[in-house]
Amino acid sequence: MESETKSPKATQEKTEPKMDSKSQNYKLHAKNIDVFYDDFKAINNISLGILEKSITAFIGPSGCGKSTFLRLFNRMNDYIDGFSMNGNILLDDKNIYDPDLKVEELRKTVGMVFQKPNPFPKSIYENVAYGLRIQGIKDEDFIEERVITSLKQATLFSEIEDNLDKSALSLSGGQQQRLCIARALAVKPSVLLMDEPTSALDPISSGKIEDLVHELKKDYTIVIVTHNMQQAGRVSDNTAFLYMGSLIEYGDTQKIFTNPEKDRTQNYITGRFG
Amino acid sequence: MRIKEKIIEKILAACALVTVLTTLGIILILAIEAFSFFGKVSIVEFFTSTQWTPLFTQKSYGILPLLSGTALTALIAITVALPVGIIIAVYLNEYAPRRVRKILKPLLEILAVVPTVVYGFFALMIVTPILQSFIPGLSGFNALSPGIVMGIMIIPFVSSLSEDALSSVPDSLRQASFGMGSTKFQTAFKVMVPAASSGIIVSAILAISRAIGETMIVAIAAGSQPRFTFDPMVPIQTITSYIVQVSMGDVPHGSIAYQTIFAAGITLFIFTFILNNISYWIKTRYQQKYE
Ligand SMILES: Nc1ncnc2c1ncn2[C@@H]1O[C@H](COP(=O)(O)OP(=O)(O)OP(=O)(O)O)[C@@H](O)[C@H]1O
Ligand SMILES: [Mg+2]
């Protein structure tokens, strides 16, 4: 395969925010990542570190590799035919692609919320309890307590507290998405990956999710992919701009949005292409 | 050209009409003969008496023994076919590499096209002796062996319809389950199978309906002793095998004994009709969840 040192590493490090050498500060650390789908190179030598309890936004035009890159952090690409990669991803300084690591354990730590709300065709309660049940937890009081806390955290509880046994599919799209967030939170992850979590929702539901994301930052490290520049600007601390599989610019959101270093970033943010 | 098109259209319509008329004709004859039968035998006796001896001197016309025989063999069959069929469907849909699936699916379908008389002899000559080697009390004719073999026969009904149901569950649910840290096995049995449950139930009902209508296997291997029992070890008779027995015998046309096959036949027809309607109802009522 391709050599990992081919592209100019120095440029990339310059675009990283604040902390370069002290990698122990990173919650997540991607190192020299290449991703291939068969022969097609979808990610081209990206390195980037993500601080604990921060919100990081991935932006960039369609097909630039945001989802591909995001799914590396909980190894959801592993199922895709033809997927292969180079490089390492560290979570709390441990390589998550270590052959000895159990993928199921990783995904309990790194939760994911998808673009389209995807609740199970079960009751609201059972959706949130799912992650606990598959871990073999039987204590019903414990599960109930966790379900309610998670629903409250996801700011959904007050709307559905009398209907926990109702089918999750009867909820509105925005409620379903908050349910999916509650479902992810119930297993107490420390990282939450969100792939365009509001793109299928109306503006009011989107607003609620944004507020929620902001609230969750207290306890979680959040990485969010979005096509919505205003959203990236509102919710995130740091922003990474990807273009055709490469990391063009990465740093403080305010700076990227007001005074980006690269013309390409400037053009994308101001809507001149994309 | 015009006229040719017209003629073709008429011929096609006539073909369709023939099938409809045949079905109506069958139902009509069943109904007429059964009606005449119930003029001579009380419908209460028919559904409550536990003796079925229309061919003996001491005549009794209780359908319950035939119903119990039919239900028992169908129950044994579905007990075999449902778990195996679901496991195969899950394997094909969740585990098997595409290449394996391509080979396995047509192989499975073969099970459904083996002539049933072959299954009947298989049950009588091979399965029964094997079962007898570890179930000492098992009669040479019994419900267990043809039930099991019938179960094998209907596996493809369950597996292929269940597989259709599983593959119509959206991938996003599988992703959600994996994303929560589920194993493949948990994803298959805690998310995918429940999400496909309506389709799986439909497949089971259609398979049961097929088992109830099955004739040769039970006629060959179950014996022909109408007996009101749910004991799988003893000889029994099903509705279908009774009909075969009488049709091939020398009962005079128009006699009560002759008409019993129509009474039995219409009972069978009504049961499978109800089952098929239940499955249709489930399909339309519950199967639009994912679009
Ligand atoms: N399963 C796959 N097999 C082959 N190629 C893929 C696969 N998934 C994605 N790709 C390709 O990889 C590239 C990056 O895709 P990705 O989905 O990561 O982009 P994205 O930035 O998330 O786009 P969008 O904004 O449209 O969601 C695209 O060119 C895409 O065609
Ligand atoms: Mg994407």
Automatic annotation (TrEMBL), chain A:
Origin: domain of life: Bacteria
Sequence ranges of Basic and acidic residues compositional bias: 1-21
Spans annotated as Disordered: 1-23
Gene3D superfamilies named in the record: P-loop containing nucleotide triphosphate hydrolases (3.40.50.300)
Keyword Transport: yes
Assigned keywords, A-Z: ATP-binding, Nucleotide-binding, Phosphate transport, Transport
InterPro entries: AAA+_ATPase (IPR003593), ABC_transporter-like_ATP-bd (IPR003439), ABC_transporter-like_CS (IPR017871), P-loop_NTPase (IPR027417), PstB-like (IPR005670)
GO terms classed as biological process: phosphate ion transmembrane transport
Transmembrane segments: none
Coiled coil feature spans: none
GO CC terms in record: membrane
CDD domains in the cross-refs: ABC_PstB_phosphate_transporter
Pfam families: ABC_tran (PF00005)
Gene Ontology MF terms in the entry: ATP binding; ATP hydrolysis activity; phosphate transmembrane transporter activity
Keyword Amino-acid biosynthesis applies: no
ABC transporter domain segment(s): 28-269
Protein's name in the database: Phosphate ABC transporter ATP-binding protein
Automatic annotation (TrEMBL), chain B:
Subcellular location, principal: membrane
Membrane-spanning intervals of the chain: 12-32, 63-90, 110-131, 143-166, 187-208, 256-282
InterPro entries assigned to the protein according to its UniProt record, in alphabetical order: MetI-like, MetI-like_sf, Phosphate_PstC
Membrane disposition: Multi-pass membrane protein
This protein's record includes keyword Membrane: yes
GO MF annotations in UniProt: phosphate transmembrane transporter activity
GO biological process, one term: phosphate ion transport
Compartments in which it is found: Cell membrane
GO CC terms of this entry: plasma membrane
Occurrences of domain ABC transmembrane type-1 (ranges): 67-279
Keywords: Cell membrane, Membrane, Phosphate transport, Transmembrane, Transmembrane helix, Transport
Keyword match Transport: yes
Protein family membership: Belongs to the binding-protein-dependent transport system permease family. CysTW subfamily.
Function: Part of the binding-protein-dependent transport system for phosphate; probably responsible for the translocation of the substrate across the membrane.
Designated name of the protein: Phosphate transport system permease protein
Origin species: Fodinibius halophilus
Origin organism lineage: Bacteria, Pseudomonadati, Balneolota, Balneolia, Balneolales
Gene: pstC
